[in-house]
Amino acid sequence: MRILLTLLLMFFNLLSNANEIEMADVMRSNGKIYVVVSVLLTILIGLIVYLISIDRKLTRLEKELKQK
Amino acid sequence: MRNWWKVVTVILLIYTLIGGLLIEVPRQHILYESIRNLYFHVPMWFSMIFLFFMSTVNSVKELSKNDLEADTKAIELVNTGIVFGILGTITGSIWAKYTWGAWWTNDVKLNGSAITMLIYMAYLVLRASLEDEQKRARISAVYNIFAFVLLIVFIGILPRMTDSLHPGNGGNPGFNNYDLDNNMKLVFYPAVLAWILLGWWMYSLRLRKRKLQQDLSL
Predict the structure, then answer these.
(1) Is A51 a domain residue?
(2) Domain count across chain A
């Protein structure tokens, strides 16, 4: 009976191990995921600023052309 | 404030990035954290399809009203759409490498999207080969409508008819059946809107640049 119980426990232990899915928990627990977030945000904001500057340049050119 | 939608685009994009990286996602074998790619890879294709669809609408307008401005819109919509298609292909390839184990598989969805990209690149070649403005507008409009029909066949229909590794096709259900939980929807839908709006913004800039060029050459 005791052997059976031990085997059953071992089986459950294996099962729970198999169900453990590795995510970025370590990164989240030591806070480094936020480094990734801030790097990507910097890139995204940089690209948006670039887009806005092109937008403004075009608006300026359009106005100039209209005046002529 | 006629540029309000650009503000919305920026806010949604920032939300997509932060939420997409930090909000809880379902824990799944093989995918792991890469499930977050859904917020970035899939909207690339949605944006491409949206831009190509709007291009087709403009081609129909060109043919029915002989409107040359619609032709200009159609070409710039395709130009912008191709950028998103290329990004979708590259991101999909990277994702495939780390989940399916290969950069490219001979999957119907993958090959279908590759063929679609080639069809649209041929549209650009076709345009470049025609000198006469009127003729170019008409012929490329006809081709463009035909190209969108092929896009529906290659991306929308054929992948659903056979088995495919790619989610949403064949015997493999899409993310929205059970994988896409409410947390993910919270990011995914705004993400789709954000990337489509960004595509529209990029297109509007290209269109304005082309119009300026046209005005200057007159």
Answers:
(1) yes
(2) 1
Cβ atoms of B40 and B95 within 8 Å: the answer is no
Contact (Cβ atoms closer than 8 angstroms) between residue B74 and residue B58: yes
Mean pLDDT by 10 residues, chain B (218 residues): 92 95 85 88 95 97 94 96 96 91 90 95 95 94 97 88 75 55 87 96 96 87
Whole-angstrom Cα distance, residue B142 to residue B150?
Answer: 13
Find the domain containing B78 and state its range. Answer: 43-209
Cβ contacts (< 8 Å) between A52 and chain B: which residues? 6
Asked if B205 and A44 come within 8 Å (Cβ–Cβ), the reply is: no
> Would you state the pLDDT for residue A36?
86
Contacts of A40 in chain B (CB under 8 A): 17, 21
Quick check: is B194 in a domain?
yes
- Contact flag B21-A37 (C-beta cutoff 8 Å): yes
- Nearest chain A Cα distance for residue B28, angstroms: 7
Residues of B in Cβ contact (< 8 Å) with A17: none
Where helices occur in B66-181 by DSSP H, the ranges are 68-99, 108-129, 133-151, 158-161
ipTM summary value? 0.78
Owning domain of residue A51: 24-68
* pTM, entire model: 0.86
Identify the CA nearest to B96 among candidates B166, B11, B38.
Answer: B166
Distance from CA of B24 to the nearest CA of A (A): 10
Which of A23, A44, A62 is closest, CB to CB, to B33? A23
